[in-house]
Design brief:
Number of strands: 0
Strand content: under 5%
Distance between the termini: 30 Å
Radius of gyration: 25 Å
Number of helices: 15
Order of helices and strands: HHHHHHHHHHHHHHH
Helix content: 55-70%
Structural class: mainly alpha
Shape: elongated
């Protein structure tokens, strides 16, 4: 059998030597959640559905994703959009007309002070901005982190030394100050959303690289990796068919818990006025503007803040549930 087609050890729970060690029987699980999580043959999705926290988190994420995808259709129901100024909804002081911050049949969440933009539309379209930014920046971080982590852990030597020192430097670097400065001095011809995605994603790769490196160091000593090397398999073949499949659980969990961090970073930059350029709807910019109006129009702060809180909490809880399920299956 040639080394290029040599099958490496499949991802699973067998010991490195291939034999199963005897262990004590822990007894039957006490409830449905424990049964689904401890059964090695249970699919991950079924174990997650047995976890109430995971189900609630998935439902919240699904609502926001659907709202982002169908934002134009949803906002068309009340005939509003986030880019239309409506001074008729404001009084002479620039405050929303009517009780409860201008909430009405036309403006379900009220309107922004001073310009009268519909707040419900801003929250819905803000989900598009936040989710796209969070997902794109996380993809950049994961691609860089997984690649550098595998190379550092498997090849070792100068690869490992350079990667380790680079992670130390980037983690110690004041990334927020750099992003604020970059957002302020970036030329107008340069697409600021794309620039922020690349830079935020770049500063996020060291954390995943360290985790991947540590797991690769453990996998590198396994029998199936050593057997592949002994049979002449190339490093690329070993990394892609032997190491990477055994890292998918870590990658999935880390991706899930990284997205809310990137969403929060975009909100922080927009809050400071150097994030997504206006008039692009942004929860962070709405929260930053609402701080000056919280005494007279609290809904302007509550609704964008609640949306940001819910989506970040849902992703974090889902990541914790995924980690628990996958750890029990190892």
């Amino acid at each position: 059998m040639s080394s290029a087609s040599m099958p490496l050890e499949p991802v699973g729970d067998k010991p490195a030597g291939g034999s199963s060690a005897p262990h004590d029987d822990p007894g039957p699980p006490h409830n449905a959640t424990e049964r689904a999580a401890t059964d090695q043959n249970t699919p991950v999705w079924r174990a997650l559905l047995a976890d109430r926290t995971a189900v609630i988190s998935l439902a919240i994420i699904a609502i926001f994703v659907l709202a982002a995808i169908f934002a134009p259709l949803i906002t068309a129901i009340n005939g509003q959009d986030p880019y239309r100024f409506n001074t008729n909804a404001l009084d002479g002081s620039g405050l929303p007309i009517g009780p409860f911050g201008g909430i009405s049949a036309e403006h379900w969440f009220g309107v922004e002070p001073q310009n009268g933009r519909d707040l419900f539309s801003i929250v819905i379209f803000g989900a598009q901005s936040s989710l796209l930014f969070g997902l794109a920046a996380t993809v950049v971080s994961m691609l860089l982190g997984v690649a550098f982590g595998i190379l550092a852990g498997f090849l070792g030597g100068w690869w490992d030394r350079i990667t380790s020192r680079a992670t130390d430097v980037i983690i110690a670097f004041p990334s927020l100050i750099f992003l604020i400065t970059l957002g302020a001095i970036a030329p107008d011809w340069l697409p600021k959303p794309l620039l922020l995605v690349i830079v935020v994603g770049f500063f996020g790769w060291p954390s995943i690289a360290r985790v991947v490196r540590s797991q690769v160091l453990s996998l590198r000593s396994r029998n199936f990796i050593q057997a592949a090397q002994g049979m002449g398999a190339s490093n690329w073949h070993i990394m892609t068919t032997g190491l990477l499949p055994n890292l998918w659980a870590t990658i999935i969990v880390f991706t899930t818990i990284s997205i809310p961090g990137k969403i929060g970073m975009e909100a922080a930059l927009s809050f400071l006025g150097v994030g997504l350029p206006p008039p692009t709807p942004s929860w962070g910019r709405s929260i930053g503007t609402a701080v000056n109006w919280v005494q007279t129009d609290p809904w302007f702060l509550i609704f964008p803040g609640a949306a940001l809180f819910l989506i970040t909490l849902a992703f974090n809880l889902l990541g914790d549930s995924l980690r628990d399920v996958l750890d029990r299956r190892r």
